[in-house]
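quick one, 211 residues, struct below
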Amino acid sequence: MKVISLFDGIDSQDVNKMLKCFEAKKISYKKERTILSNMSNTTIFGIILSGTANIIRVDYNGSRSILERLYANDIFGGPLYSSNNNELSIIATSDCEILEFDYSHIIGRCRKNCEYHSRLLDNMLQILSNKVQLNNEKILILSKKTIREKLLEYFNTKANNEGSKIFKMDITLTDLADYLSIDRSAMMREIKNLKDDGFIEIINKRVYLYF
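---
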């Protein structure tokens, strides 16, 4: 999957002009700080400039799950998600720098008729297409019936995306359990079983796959 920035193909000087036109703000967040809460009820649109974050859903029972992992160049915004009466928020998983502006600047006609506005829209469509692919991968993982099958599918998908059967875990085990919507203790037991059965090995957060 090609990694694409919202501003790919746009000259840096023109980007700066667009950001002024968009009234964009750069904001820094420390690890574990809330970047955005009640996301589906806001028109704020954001880009991860550096760092990582999680989109978190809390259901009516207070159960927490991770809908999506965000990395540099990833986009987020209330208009892109539906909460279905569950609250969505974005939590920094490392120190982050975020670019924020109102979503109306993306879909509306630029007041100053920026020459590259159409290119920005093309880039956004490509980014959203990548998001659909990632969501399809997650659906495939969550469709597996057992914890073992979910873990194996997750690790295999990660290896395919990394292009190697050896890769570094970029998520904590607690977050992994929330991402897979499974009990952490049960997941840890199954990871031990996978190690004992020779499917995987984890050394210093580096995962080795043998299947």
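The chain has six helices and eleven strands.
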